[in-house]
Design brief:
Length: 316
């Protein structure tokens, strides 16, 4: 492992104790958890007069303390006011990396397999001095890779359970406009959109325009302009259970059916930049994008029909 030290885990929580409990329950099943330091960044209430929200946050903090025997050390950083997801994560990662040179990052809706911490720590150790590699990723789409593929490199950057090093995090550029200008100057939007399998350009534009405050799109763009790679497992070690409308982004994209690997060991010694694996991911993304567009079209169609019906009733 990392000089006989396991990487600290940063867990970002807000007001979803039910989700967080499932995350912590999955984490302590990892043999490395008992020797790992856990830093919990608990965001403050958006409205201190909202008793439901305040009580949920109190319940969250009480829940965390129930897991003190599951980790080497638990430190809770309580935000006195509401930072918001992006600011909480950026500030939290920066603070942990001021003390350590590596970090494992989780949010309150990312359930992990029992081999997650081993994969993260081993990846951090193996690629610590390979500056081409920027992150170790835990999530994978349900794709059938060849049997001989355990891991591979991709330029895409995920945020559903991952790890990185201090010197890589130093590359983070918070100014989305600067990143947009670099990508635009290089005329590399198609590559940024991963062969047009997802509209990351639109997400970056929304960040710049203030429509969204996403740390993840800026993190991806920061690494993209530096031509970095990211290590991925062939089978997912994490599962997002928060796409039920309860989270910050209110997403309802169902990922609960995605498989998660419970294998405690994945060989990292033969990772390489595999075009065939990346192409499979791109094709999967394109299929998902087509499904999303079709779903949005159907939803808009139903809304328009409803409006027309209401209008006809008014005329009657």
């Amino acid at each position: 492992m990392l000089q006989n030290n396991l990487a600290p885990i940063a867990l970002f929580v807000y007001n979803r104790p039910e989700h967080t409990k499932r995350v912590l329950d999955s984490l302590i099943k990892n043999p490395e958890a008992i020797n790992s330091n856990l830093y919990v960044f608990a965001d403050g209430a958006k409205d201190s007069s909202n008793t439901i929200e305040v009580n949920k946050i109190k319940e969250m903090k009480s829940l965390i303390f129930q897991y003190t025997k599951g980790f080497n050390l638990i430190t809770i950083i309580e935000r006195s006011n509401n930072f918001g997801l992006a600011n909480n994560i950026i500030d939290g990662i920066s603070n942990v990396l001021a003390m350590y040179k590596y970090i494992i990052v989780l949010e309150d809706d990312i359930v992990v397999s029992k081999g997650f911490l081993q994969f993260m720590n081993k990846g951090l150790f193996l690629y610590e001095h390979n500056n081409k590699v920027s992150t170790i990723q835990g999530f994978q789409f349900p794709i059938n890779f060849d049997n001989d593929v355990n891991t591979y490199f991709d330029s895409a950057v995920g945020c559903w359970g991952w790890a990185t090093w201090r010197d890589r995090w130093d590359l983070f550029e918070p100014n989305g406009k600067k990143l947009w200008e670099i990508i635009n100057t290089n005329n590399s939007w198609e590559k940024f959109n991963i062969n047009n399998s997802y509209n990351f350009k639109e997400l970056l534009e929304e960040q710049i325009e203030g429509k969204k405050n996403s740390w993840a799109i800026r993190w991806y763009a920061s690494l993209f302009v530096k031509d970095k790679l990211n290590l991925y497992p062939a089978i997912s070690l994490t599962l997002n259970i928060g796409n039920d409308g309860s989270g910050y982004h209110k997403s309802k994209q169902d990922t609960s059916h995605f498989p998660i690997c419970d294998n405690a060991h994945i060989d990292l010694n033969e990772a390489e930049l595999c075009d065939r694996e990346v192409k499979k991911v791109i094709n999967f993304r394109k299929k998902q994008l087509r499904k999303l567009k079709l779903s949005n079209f159907i939803t808009k169609f139903k809304i328009n029909i409803l409006k027309i019906d209401k209008l006809q009733w008014k005329k009657l």
